[in-house]
Design brief:
about 325 residues; mainly alpha; hpI Integrase, Chain A; three-stranded antiparallel β-sheet; two-stranded antiparallel ribbon; 14 helices; 5 strands; globular
């Protein structure tokens, strides 16, 4: 794979959105896809020409290298992203079609944000911090915390077109992972309040008829402003052990407690301690409650019910 490789050139010039760290991860994994594609002796030079046959070949090469299905799935996610950027919609979204099982990320240590820290941050940004965009950041942090949105989703909400007060629903269409839209139903009073407080920050996007919550004309550079505030107040793994994404983790933790009736596994030192507490709280029906809570959270997160690899990432695993 040399400098003249057109696939590499297209990865480097692709217009990606989201935080710089996310864009870097997409490009890096797309380069890995190209590396294994070339090892499989395929010379395709355009992302528009990539097919399921190429994904199958890359999977075989990566397995021959001894790489796990989870790592292959990560590389495939980036490669699919590049295909979509170049309007190639022909790639299967099901990894099993390439004999790759779902990768699993289980966080047995909670990454949920501390509610007291979050509420203090919001109050400080709204009332004290002189930063030009402090109140806009506060509105988006509240949206992440109350609705479980990713930071880019909170920035790109179209409250003009996608929020129905009558139906108590919110469509999340922009900035989503993998470009998958979803609808949040039965919005609570606090969630509605969070949306109301974000209304003063609605701006026109660069697409006619579509709005977002970023300063007009700033685009994805807005994510740098969020990074600035996060670092200023210590919302980093190094300082507090969680990032702004911890707001999403905390939202799903609260949902789990509300539905299941007990704290999730990653709030305990061991799975045995979790199970003991769950049974003490609700008795023998705890596994059914655990399943019900996870199904709801997985759908709310933008996936299908039954995606335990998703809920494990937020809650930890309930079983060994």
């Amino acid at each position: 794979m040399g400098k003249s490789d057109s696939l590499v050139f297209e990865v480097n010039r692709a217009k990606l959105s989201g935080p710089k760290s996310y864009q870097y991860r997409i490009r890096t994994n797309a380069h890995r896809f190209i590396h294994f594609l070339r090892r499989a002796k395929y010379g395709v030079q355009k992302w528009t020409k990539i097919s399921n046959r190429h994904f199958k070949a890359v999977a075989e090469e990566m397995k021959n290298e001894g790489l796990t299905d989870g790592r292959i799935a990560e590389v495939f996610s980036a490669a699919r992203h590049l295909c979509v950027v170049y309007e190639n919609m022909s790639i299967s979204s099901i990894n099993a079609d390439f004999d790759v099982s779902r990768g699993s990320i289980t966080n047995q240590t909670s990454k949920a944000a501390d509610p007291e820290v979050v509420n203090t941050l919001i109050s400080t940004l709204e009332n004290v911090d002189p930063y030009l965009h402090a109140q806009r950041v506060a509105a988006q942090v509240r949206l992440q915390y109350e609705l479980g949105l990713r930071r880019e989703e909170a920035s790109k909400l179209d409250l003009v077109n996608d929020w129905s007060r009558e139906k108590r629903t919110l469509e999340v269409r922009y900035g989503t992972k993998g470009g998958r839209p979803r609808t949040l139903h039965g919005l609570s009073a606090k969630q509605t309040e969070a949306l109301e407080k974000a209304l003063p920050f609605v701006s026109k996007s660069n697409r006619p008829g579509i709005y977002n919550l970023m300063p007009e004309g700033m685009g994805d550079r807005w994510q740098n402003c969020l990074d600035y505030v996060a670092k200023k107040y210590g919302l980093t793994k190094k300082v507090l052990g969680y990032t702004l994404h911890g707001n999403r983790h905390e939202r799903f933790r609260r949902m789990y407690v509300d539905i299941a009736g007990f704290e999730p596994p990653n709030r305990f030192d061991s799975i045995a301690a979790f199970q003991k507490n769950a049974e003490a709280e609700v008795g023998a029906e705890w596994p059914a409650r655990d399943d019900r809570a996870r199904d709801v959270i997985e759908v709310t997160a933008g996936h299908s019910a039954g995606r335990r690899d998703v809920s494990n990432a937020y809650l930890g695993s309930s079983y060994r």
